[in-house]
Amino acid sequence: MLCLPLLTALLSLLSSTALAAPTSNVHPRTFPNELVIDYQGNYVFYPGEYLTPADIAIEPSIGTILPLTGTYLLVMFDPDGPSALNDGVPFTILHNIRTNMKPAGLSSDLFNLVGTDIAPYLVPEPLPGCAPLTHQYTFNLYTQPASFVFPAAFDKFLALPTLATPKARFGFNIPDFEVAAGLGSPLLTMYFDSSAAQKATTCTEPA
Q1: DSSP 168
Q2: Cα dist. 91→27, 44, 77 in Å?
């Protein structure tokens, strides 16, 4: 994690370096990246920084290094759902969707984006013993279309899991959602790594 005084250097670099175009719907590796994730002072400035489960227990704030002026939609997801729980096939877990995100002023040298949670924050909890052991929790920020309507086919993913529905957020398809919502490719992307706090030798499916 970087300290905020380094933002001056980042801004200087941004002014002289063109950002690479996104190449993937999961986590295009642009550098430097304008999207910043703030977990109560634990800042993610660069793709692949490591956060512990304790760090990510509370929903983060979202900011950018340079100001934005439009309306945006944020999707947080885990592309590393354990294949052992899905007949050997990896899957995506939805963690958060925020709509109508708009600039909300400057604080701690970051330009804040604030919106509405329509899929409330699901705390990341990598399962002990389930490969991959390290998960890449990813945030895609999209320009929200002026006529945006949340696609009804994805309503089933909005509620948080319960004891009766532990897999409610399993199987979220990012490319399909982008098409259904008319989003196009992400404007900005960031991800961090995390792994289970406990160790285990076997992968156990959620009860």
Answers
A1: T
A2: 15, 24, 10
Please state, in angstroms and rounded to a whole number, the distance separating the CA atoms of residues 80 and 137.
Answer: 8
Given this model, what pLDDT does residue 154 score? 98
Amino acid at 163: L
For 57-120, the DSSP string reads SSPPEEEESS---S-EEEEEEEEEE-GGGTTT--EEEEEEEEEEEEEEEEETTEEEEEEEEEE-
Give the C-alpha distances (Å, rounded to integers) separating 111 from 114, 140, 146, 163, 166. Answer: 10, 17, 22, 38, 35
pTM: 0.83
Q: What is the mean pLDDT of residues 21-50?
A: 71
pLDDT at 82 over 50: yes
In this predicted structure, the answer to whether residue 160 has a pLDDT above a threshold of 90 is: yes
The band of 130, judged by pLDDT with boundaries at 50, 70 and 90, is: confident
Please give the structure tokens belonging to residue 173: 């398809």
170 closest CA partner among 96, 98, 91: 91
Q: What is the pLDDT of residue 90?
A: 86
Q: Taken in order 180, 183, 186, 189, is the CA torsion positive or negative?
A: negative
Cα–Cα distance, 28 to 189 (Å, whole number)? 7
